[in-house]
């Protein structure tokens, strides 16, 4: 599992380690790792044209010392300073090794550009001349290697406020930074290489982890299994007019490994679901009939919300599901209802999972949607704490938070997933995993992983329909080791 630490933790760990090491040791370790990656990317180091973009801080120092190492191996290394200050010892070392100072035009013909403008000390939109250098680096045909963090990307959040370097490779030191995993920053990193500078023993628990295949551990049937032991998931979705979301959510549950799916809704939705998923056991209720939901039979988890509508009838069903003592996932219209009835959450003892996109989370938190998009990590954490739920924030990087736990980043998925109905599939899938006994955070992370994997397999470079994601779920499960 890959993990990341926020900047203040990185700085504290560095300070603890620095206190035990001779001055400059960490920067030399960082520079050695950076130079080694650069050398491996070049067909030949000797004679290669390397340009260093050098900001005024230690990120620039790393770049200068890496440049020194490449110059000693025969590269033609040119430093382009951006700040009023240039790391003096690093610059002296580069010049002593045969490097020289140059100007921005040399970026255009470089074989390799090292971006040492800003690292974990960067903040806000890049100012000039930093921004102009980043822009020029993004236009060069040569390789661009970011030192620690692509400049212009906020290391903690992945936020990009203005110009930002678009790297082919990012060489990061000691531990990953959250912004390397979260869009839009993640999309600027290219391949991320971690250089060990000995920070490990000084680091606390991570702030963020990235789900890997080994972390996805859905319940598997054994010889003792029957449909009840494997888990019954109840789905409350669809309405008089909207039935598609109900079909898709049920499909996600059927192919998500539930022992049985109970589908509870008004007659038109039940009719459509029955036709598409004869596997589901259905119960017809009147609009908003909370007692009907309770009488539908025992379930181990409820999914409530897709296509449900947002009126009083929907609110009664959301309240009924949340009033049970089993895990409940609230999605889509259910979240809109919840934004008006936040009092439904605090009394729960069983786990609650909420799966909003940024707009739905904005309503739940009384926040601005654009603000949530820009600072997804902060908002998903806040939502988990305030709403006392496991919160899965959908988007170009799906994040999953539960209070007091590292935030999980989902690495699978494709841009083709941004199409109607795919969220409904996810809700049913996570519901099935909850019913199978997975803990809320694990179920949400596993569901996001499998859903994104199914989407990738189904899309394969072409447009995707939500139903295709359901169809590819078996193949997604098969990608997991030991399944
Ligand atoms: N602290 C340590 O022990 C180590 C630090 N290392 C390196 O040091 C870096 C951190 O160094 P610093 O703390 O000096 O910070 P940085 O070098 O990351 O950034 C600070 C510099 O960037 C400028 N800057 C910040 N935001 C800007 C903006 N929006 N527009 C234009 N200029 C901006 C500042 O004026 C300052 O000159 C790490 O990212 C890493 O590369 C490594 O050498 C490993 C060891
Ligand atoms: K950088």
From TrEMBL:
Instruction: Give residues annotated as binding (6S)-NADPHX.
Output: 58-62, 119-125, 130, 148, 245, 307, 357, 424
Q: Does the keyword Electron transport apply?
A: no
Q: Alphabetically list the UniProt keywords.
A: ATP-binding, Isomerase, Lyase, Metal-binding, Multifunctional enzyme, NAD, NADP, Nucleotide-binding, Potassium
Tell me which Gene Ontology terms the entry assigns under biological process. Answer: metabolite repair; nicotinamide nucleotide metabolic process
What are the required cofactors?
Mg(2+); K(+)
All copies of the YjeF C-terminal domain together span 210-480
Q: Which residues bind AMP?
A: 394-398, 423
Spans annotated as Disordered: 203-224
Q: Name one GO molecular function term.
A: ATP binding
How are cofactors bound according to the entry's free-text note?
Answer: Binds 1 potassium ion per subunit.
- Catalysed transformations (reactions): (6S)-NADPHX + ADP = AMP + phosphate + NADPH + H(+); (6R)-NADPHX = (6S)-NADPHX; (6S)-NADHX + ADP = AMP + phosphate + NADH + H(+); (6R)-NADHX = (6S)-NADHX
The residues that hold K(+) are 59, 115, 151
* Domain named YjeF N-terminal: residues: 10-205
Q: What is its EC number?
A: 4.2.1.136, 5.1.99.6
Q: Give the record's subunit note.
A: Homotetramer.
Entry's family note: Belongs to the NnrD/CARKD family.
UniProt protein name: Bifunctional NAD(P)H-hydrate repair enzyme
Task: Tell me what organism the protein belongs to.
Answer: Actinomadura craniellae
Gene this chain is encoded by: nnrE
């Amino acid at each position: 599992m890959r993990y990341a630490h926020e900047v203040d933790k990185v700085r504290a760990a560095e300070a603890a380690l620095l206190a035990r090491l001779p001055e400059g040791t960490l920067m030399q370790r960082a520079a050695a790792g950076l130079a080694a990656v650069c050398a491996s990317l070049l067909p030949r180091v000797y004679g290669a044209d390397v340009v260093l973009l050098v900001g005024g801080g230690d990120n620039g120092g790393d770049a200068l010392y890496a440049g020194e190492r490449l110059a000693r191996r025969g590269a033609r290394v040119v430093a382009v300073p951006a700040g009023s200050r240039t790391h003096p010892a690093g610059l002296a070392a580069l010049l002593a090794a045969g490097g020289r100072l140059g100007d921005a035009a040399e970026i255009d013909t470089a074989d390799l550009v090292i971006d040492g403008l800003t690292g974990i000390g960067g903040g806000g939109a890049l100012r000039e001349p930093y921004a102009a250098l980043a822009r020029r680096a993004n236009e060069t045909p040569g390789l661009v290697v970011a030192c620690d963090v692509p400049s212009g990307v906020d290391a903690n959040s992945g936020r990009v406020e203005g110009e930002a370097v678009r790297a082919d490779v990012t060489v990061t030191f000691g531990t990953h930074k959250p912004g390397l995993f979260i869009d839009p920053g993640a999309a600027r990193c290219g391949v991320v290489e971690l250089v060990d500078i000995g920070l490990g023993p000084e680091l606390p628990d991570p702030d963020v982890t990235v789900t890997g295949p080994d972390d996805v551990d859905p319940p598997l049937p054994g010889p003792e299994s029957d449909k009840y032991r494997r888990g019954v998931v109840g789905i409350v979705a669809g309405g008089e007019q909207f039935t598609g979301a109900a079909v898709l959510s049920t499909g996600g549950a059927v192919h998500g490994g539930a022992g049985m799916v109970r589908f509870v809704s008004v007659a038109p939705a039940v009719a459509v679901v029955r036709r598409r998923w004869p596997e589901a056991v259905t119960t017809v209720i009147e609009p908003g009939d909370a007692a009907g939901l309770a009488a539908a039979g025992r379930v181990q988890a409820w999914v409530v919300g897709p296509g449900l509508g947002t009126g009083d009838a929907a609110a009664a069903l959301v309240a009924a599901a949340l009033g049970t003592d089993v895990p409940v996932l609230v999605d889509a219209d259910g979240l809109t209802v919840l934004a008006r009835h936040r009092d439904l959450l605090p009394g729960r003892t069983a786990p609650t999972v909420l799966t909003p996109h940024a707009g739905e989370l904005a309503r739940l938190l009384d926040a601005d949607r654009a603000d949530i998009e820009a600072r997804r990590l902060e908002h998903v954490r806040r939502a988990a704490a305030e709403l006392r739920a496991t919160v899965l924030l959908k988007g170009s990087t799906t994040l999953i938070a539960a209070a007091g736990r590292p935030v999980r980043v989902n690495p699978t998925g494709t841009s083709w997933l941004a199409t109607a109905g795919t969220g409904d599939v996810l809700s049913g899938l996570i519901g099935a995993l909850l019913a199978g006994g997975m803990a809320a955070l694990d179920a949400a992370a596993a569901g996001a992983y499998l859903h994104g994997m199914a989407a990738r397999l189904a899309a394969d470079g072409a447009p995707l329909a939500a139903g295709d994601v359901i169809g590819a779920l078996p193949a997604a499960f098969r990608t997991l080791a030991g399944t």
